User: What shape does this take?
Amino acid sequence: MHEMSLIEGVLRILADEARRQNFDRVTKVWLEVGVLSHAEPEALAFCFDAATRGTLAEGAMLEVIRTAGKAWCARCSENVPVRNRYDACPRCGGYQLQVVEGDELRVKELEVV
Amino acid sequence: MCTVCGCGNDEPRIEGHHHHGHHVHEGHHHTHADPHGGGLAAVHLAGLDPERIVQVERDILSLNDAHAAANRARLAAQGIFALNLVSSPGSGKTTLLARTVADLKARRAIAVIEGDQQTVLDADRIRETGVPAIQVNTGKGCHLDAHMVGHALDGLGLEAGGLLFIENVGNLVCPAAFDLGEAHKAVILSVTEGADKPLKYPDMFAAADVMVINKIDLLPYVDFDVDRCVEYARRIRPDMEVVRTSATTGQGLADWYAWITARRDAFLAAAWPGRRSGSR
Assistant: This one.
């Protein structure tokens, strides 16, 4: 389960931002997690609770924002919506797809004190 | 000493020892909203610590990616071509690697970084071939990360122009997320597994540039449709290159070595423009 490592990464970003943006405590974290990313929101939530204990984000709320998947279809020459990496193009049925959106894993914003 | 992190090499490994985490959306004690004025609300007076929203917009993997970029720059400067070998446990990855380094070591300098949760068995197997190897034990960790690989590189002393193989922890999920600074990920799949693995583990197959279908000597005994497997892999990764091998009989290994040589030449042409890239 690599979500623990991902949450450790989130905590490092929070500590770094606390210095840069001058806050002591984090009460809410918004994460952008694309539907095509390799992270599972439930596992992220589980690890977030465990890993934030004793940190500046102890007790903070976690809000996961799911972003939709989008891929460039080389045959249609346009962006098409996709829900999974193995999806075919909904227009032409082909698999010449390059993911352009929906694989994000990003700390978007924070509610801080 | 790590040039990116400045750490002392012995920092604790991430261990998933937690056991009673609850879902974030349920029942969180919000300390300063206590209506009875008890607890922290009595200490933090309303108005003195107003909540505010700050913008961050940072990739969660940005620190790993910084370590990976440092590894990549270092490898490019030394003309070291690195492959990150990923697969599920039991694909024959270590057997393929031991055979590969034994066959190629006469041609150029080779070193190996072995990732496993426990034991130094795989590094021992590689060292038996006469090639230097460093074992990284991830403990409870399910993947190598770029920071570990940077430290392993410190200890390897691989000469310029050499070949570096990084054998990741046997796991088709987690290693997909962690760039190590390699030139390419090679995903190894054996014919004793399901031909539908590319669809089941799409993140890994999306991240890999080549798929090695191993144990092809066993094809007569198993129900594995190679063409279907390749078609599935190319649904995920349309330009996926494919090599078929048997690490035990040697079948297809020439194709594997030809792929490595071609990719290494392309890497060196980019990393060392104008310099002779031939074997040592």
In short: DSSP finds eight helices and eight strands in chain B. Chain B touches chain A through 48 residues (CB under 8 Å). The first strand of chain B starts at residue 52 and ends at 59.
